[in-house]
Write a structure and sequence with these properties.
This is Transposase Tc5 C-terminal domain-containing protein. Helices cover about 45% and strands about 5% of the residues. The chain has about 140 residues and is mainly alpha-helical. The protein has one domain (about 10-125). The protein has a two-stranded antiparallel sheet with strand order 1-2. A hairpin with a 6-residue loop joins strand 1 and strand 2 (about 120). It is globular and about 55 Å long. The model has no long low-confidence stretch (mean pLDDT about 90). The structure holds zinc ion (2 copies).
């Protein structure tokens, strides 16, 4: 049996290497967006946190990102096999030019949907509870 030494999970614990780190990063990007744009949402409130987790977790479930976990085992040094994977944070937060999916919405784009690639503002993601399940490769 091998045990992971303390304080190195970020380097050798596969879920830490790609999944949790990316998840935390994405969560922070969304809460930073709220502060930056002074949105009337209290991100420390439990119901807000729960809703954000629910919506973000759904984004992580997109088939687009399924190889991330497999690749995490390689990056952590456990397997030789490599997997092509889409960097979730890059996909969701790097190409924000353009406008929100909703016609006539002039709000600044928060993210790109990991499922259908639609651009969404905070309102149409969070308030409208955007729980996408339509996968467009
Ligand atoms: Zn979508
Ligand atoms: Zn919008």
């Amino acid at each position: 049996m091998l045990t992971i030494p303390p304080n190195v999970t970020g380097q050798i614990q596969p879920l830490d290497v790609l999944c949790f780190r990316m998840y935390k990063g994405c969560f922070k990007k969304i809460s930073d967006f709220v502060f930056l744009h002074d949105l009337p949402v209290q991100v420390h409130r439990r119901d807000v946190i729960l809703r954000l987790h629910s919506l973000l977790y759904q984004q992580f479930q997109s088939p687009r990102f399924e190889n991330s976990i497999a690749e995490a085992w390689h990056k952590s040094g456990y397997t030789d096999e490599r997997f092509m994977y889409v960097n979730l944070a890059k996909f969701m937060f790097d190409k924000l030019k353009g406008s929100c999916l909703h016609e006539n919405c002039r709000d600044i784009v928060l993210l790109v949907c990991g499922w259908c690639k639609a651009r969404l503002c905070f309102h149409h993601f969070f308030d409208a509870h955007y729980f996408c399940t339509i996968y467009l490769p």
